[in-house]
Amino acid sequence: MKLFERIRAAFSSKGPPPSDAASSSIVHPLSFPVFVTTYGYPGDTTPDSNSANGIGAWDNRLGPLSLAVSRDVEAGFVKAGIKPRTLVVIRLADGREITKRWDDRTARSYKGKPLTGRFDFYSPDGKNPWEGEKVVGFGKGLPLPL
């Protein structure tokens, strides 16, 4: 199995609850409602031209680890010292943790309403299994082992 395929497999299915070691990476609990959403899939009803072409907010390529966040979440990232293109560990309400890379931003608004509370997973192969899950915290991720 190629490295890219191993990485994709490691981060593309629901996993077990985190171990104590992984739990220490979550240092920024969220005090407002935030949920997992999906973008970039076939039939996406809110596409933008960059996402449709696999291009992120910093003219980077999007991939299976790519994450877009709404501006309110981005403000939390900035306050936490998390920079674009950094790995981020996301904790779901049930305790599971998912590692993604901050590669993109959501639109500021949709149909005249601000987009808020979003961890938007890039998923060109279809909607992801975490769609609609509540996010309760995040932290800076560790580099991927090779």
Description:
With 146 residues, the protein is an alpha+beta fold. Helix content is 18%, strand content 32%. The chain has one domain: Barwin-like endoglucanases (Beta Barrel), CATH 2.40.40. The N terminus is likely disordered. The strands form 2 sheets. The chain has a 6-stranded mixed β-barrel with strand order 1-7-2-4-3-8. It has 4 helices and 8 strands, in the order ααβαβαββββββ.
Number of E-state strands: 8
Would you tell me which CATH topology applies? Barwin-like endoglucanases
Structural class: alpha+beta
- Overall pLDDT confidence: 82
Largest sheet: number of strands, sense, barrel closure = 6 strands, mixed, barrel
**Largest sheet strand order:** 1-7-2-4-3-8
C-alpha geometry: globular
**Named CATH architecture:** Beta Barrel
What gap, in angstroms, lies between the N and C termini? 13 Å
Count structural domains.
1
Radius of gyration from CA coordinates: 14 Å
Number of helical elements:
4
Q: Strand content of the residues, in percent?
A: 25-35%
What is the top-level CATH class? Mainly Beta
Uncertain runs are 1-24
**Helix-strand sequence:** HHEHEHEEEEEE
What is the oligomer described by this structure? Answer: single chain
Task: Indicate the percent of residues in helices.
Answer: 10-25%
Topology of helices and strands:
Elements: H1 3-11, H2 20-23, E1 28-39, H3 49-52, E2 66-69, H4 71-79, E3 87-92, E4 97-105, E5 109-110, E6 113-114, E7 118-122, E8 134-140
Parallel strand pairs: 1-7, 2-4
Antiparallel strand pairs: 1-8, 2-7, 3-4, 3-8, 5-6
